[in-house]
Write a structure and sequence with these properties.
Layout: H1 6-17, H2 23-30, H3 34-46, E1 66-74, H4 80-88, E2 93-98, E3 105-111, H5 114-125, E4 131-139
Antiparallel strand pairs: 1-3, 1-4, 2-3
Helix pairs in contact: 1-2, 1-3, 2-3
Length: 150
């Protein structure tokens, strides 16, 4: 059984066009009731399929011209929960993933300039107890970013 039916998929597609779109406009576009849209969106949120409707910020437009993808090698992998909590305290760390391979964690960092990036890496992230090593690749621009196609 599919998790999403055609109505769910179409409602999500409408929200992707504009997350602020009124439920009544979605209902009109899809030729379904406003109540059905409301109930479906609530259910999708309760199930964790839609995790929120929020603005997508263009970091470069607000002064964060530098981005980096950084792999973290930990002294002990079992320290990852504590280290993740410390990373959450650094607002410039925008994403964090568990990965396989040479690193335990992989993070995305944004910074205003190269000095800010250096400070984040050397003064904040490298100073988290349990972080043995970082290895960064500077991002030169995003070719595209998207949700999975439904």
């Amino acid at each position: 059984m599919d998790i999403l039916d055609e109505f769910d998929s179409n409602i999500i597609k409408e929200l992707e066009k504009d997350g602020r779109m009124p439920y009544s406009a979605i209902a009109a576009n899809l030729k379904i009731s406003n109540t059905m849209v409301h109930q479906r969106i609530n259910r999708l949120m309760e199930q964790g399929i839609i995790t929120g409707i929020k603005p997508i910020i263009n970091e470069k437009k607000v002064g964060y011209d530098w981005g980096a993808f950084t792999g973290l090698t930990l002294n002990k992998d079992e320290d990852s929960s504590r280290i993740i909590e410390e990373l959450k305290k650094i607002p410039e760390v925008t994403e964090c993933y568990f990965i396989t391979g040479s690193f335990t964690l992989y993070i995305k960092i944004v910074a205003r300039d190269h000095e800010h990036m250096r400070s984040l890496l050397y003064n904040k992230i490298d100073n988290i107890p349990g972080v043995a090593k970082t290895d960064s690749m500077i991002e030169l621009g995003c070719a595209f970013k998207r949700n999975i196609s439904l």
